[in-house]
Design brief:
Elements: H1 2-27, H2 35-60, H3 68-87, H4 103-133, H5 135-148, H6 155-175, H7 178-198
Helix pairs in contact: 1-2, 1-4, 2-4, 3-6, 3-7, 4-5, 4-6, 4-7, 5-6
Amino acid sequence: MILRFYTHIATVVLLLLLLLPGWLSYGGDTGILSQNQRLLYSLLIRSFLTLLLGLSCFRLKPLRKVAVLDYLLLLLLPLLTIALGVLIPAADTSGTLSNNVSIVLLVAISITAAFNEELFFRSWLLEKYEQSIGSIAVVLLSSCLFASIHLWQGPPVVIFSFFIGVLYAGVYLKFRNVWILIGAHSIHNVLAILLSNIR
C-alpha cells in the first residue's frame, strides 16, 4: 500500500517535470533569458529526467535481444507517425522560434524528449499500472497524459499526440521494447524539427 502511494507521487512529480521543458522552450518567455538559454535549460532538465527514468525503468525490465522485427518497427513507426500527421495537420508553429536558435540544440532536445517521454509514458506508466488498472485503461491513461504535455502546441497536436500515444503504447505492450519507441520517436522529432526549419 505504501509502495503504491509512493509510485503515484513519483508519477505525478515526473509528469510535472515533463511539462516544464515544453513551457521553458516555447511558453516561458520572461524576457530574462534568451531563447537559446531557455532551450539549453530545457535540454538539461530533459537529460536529468532521461537519466532518472532510465535508472528506474531498466530496473523494471531487463533489455532483451534485438530482432529483425525491431528494425522493421523502427522504420514503420515514424512512417505511420508521418502519415497520421498528414491526416491530422499540426498547428503552424513556424513563428514560435526565432531564426537564431541553434538547430543542434533543437535536435538534441528532440532526441532527449523522445528518451524521457518514451521512458515515462510507455515504460514507467505501462509497467507500473498495467496490472492494477488493465491494459486498455493504462493505454488510455498513458495516451491522455502524453497528449496533455503537448497542450502548448494546440488542439491538433494534442489529438495527434493522443493517437500516437495509443499506437506506441500498443507496440510497447506487444513487444516490451522501449528502444524501438525511443528510436522511432527520435526519428519523428528530428524530422519534424528539420522539416519545420525548411519552410
